Amino acid sequence: MYECPWCRKTSFSFWDKQTLGPTRKLSCGHCKKEVSVCWKSAQLAAIPVLALGFLGMLAGREAYGSWSAVMLFAWLGISFGMAFTAPLYHFYVPLVKPQ
Length: 99
Fold this sequence. Notes:
Layout: E1 2-3, E2 10-12, H1 14-18, E3 26-27, E4 34-37, H2 39-45, H3 47-63, H4 67-92, E5 95-96
Antiparallel strand pairs: 1-2, 3-4, 4-5
């Protein structure tokens, strides 16, 4: 559980935070004020998924040279990238008061 930056009470679950983005807001269950995540931190936490997806595309093109291989390797890269992005998002991206 994560605490609200307004009232400091725990009211957000792990999945609530994972679905938040810099432009999406959730309301606190206690104080009813909106909460978001830090834009810069969220973008930095997304780097592994983007980089491994792109590297997967390159690897599929070099290894087999077909569109199906490119898409398969991109999907694998994105899947492995999420294994790094989810913990980064959990620990590194704070809940903030939207501006």
